[in-house]
Amino acid sequence: MQPRILVVDDEPLVRDTIAGVLELDGADAEGVGTGEQALCALESDGYDLVILDVGLPGMSGFDTMREIRTGSDVPVIFLTAAGELSERVAGFDLGADDYVVKPTELPELSRRVRAVLRRRSSQVAVLDELNGPCGIRMRLRSHEICVSEEPLSLTPKEFSVMRLLLERRGQVINTDELSSEVWGYETFGSRNFVEAHISRLRSKLRTAGAGDVITTLRGVGYVIR
Fold first, then answer.
1. Do 156 and 204 fall into the same domain?
2. Which domain holds residue 184?
3. What is the 3-state secondary structure (H, E, C) of the chain?
């Protein structure tokens, strides 16, 4: 079955070109020019993936992403000229599956689309609940985590990091593997980016009373025992 992809970009030539390349790659691609149009399209039709620009007129791509994530976990790839580290961090924290900076080669974009779709199709949870030390409980379908039955607020990517560490509890996961599994591509290459997410996650867990459950093995990786 052809994957259905929504391309959201205010430049008609850009979105038509991307949609055309994706169709040549076997997808059913459509384009809209604003965040409001994207939300309407997502409400009325089922899509397998969204390619979303940040610099949209009116509702920005980040605001559009916030609205999408209130009711949908459809995979989203940001494709934008906004390439500062802080912007990429913001995009991933909002729940993006990938973040591609313009200009990019269209064959690379097609590869990233295939990688996100493949990764999502393999993420079928066998269990609905994961348990950790110090009263940590994670409910996968409802996307909730609590410590001693008290809810803990995590960003989507912090939740994904915690899920991976709990799913592979007792196994050491290195930075490159965390980057690939959570952010989705090996070339992300920002050790500081991963470390920043781990640091924020640790801080939230300590505040919630879980203590230092994430152990760092210098030069090796991270583990929850």
1. yes
2. 129-224
3. CCCEEEEECCCHHHHHHHHHHHHHCCCEEEEECCHHHHHHHHHHCCCCEEEECCCCCCCCHHHHHHHHHCCCCCCEEEEECCCCHHHHHHHHHCCCCEEEECCCCHHHHHHHHHHHHHHHHHCCCCCCEEECCCCEEEECCCCEEEECCEECCCCHHHHHHHHHHHHCCCCCECHHHHHHHHHCCHHHCCHHHHHHHHHHHHHHHHHCCCCCCEEEECCCEEEEC
- pLDDT, one tens digit per residue, over 42-86 is 887 788 999 999 999 999 999 999 999 887 888 999 998 877 888
Domain boundary at 56, 91, 122, which?
122
Per-residue model confidence (pLDDT) at position 216: 87
CATH code: domain of residue 138: 1.10.10.10
203 with 145, same domain: the answer is yes
Count of domains for the chain = 2
Q: What are 94-109's pLDDT values in tens digits?
A: 888 889 888 888 888 8
> Which CATH number characterizes residue 57's domain?
3.40.50.2300
Give the pLDDT confidence of 168-184 residue by residue, as tens digits: 888 888 888 888 777 76
- pLDDT above 80 (res 31): yes
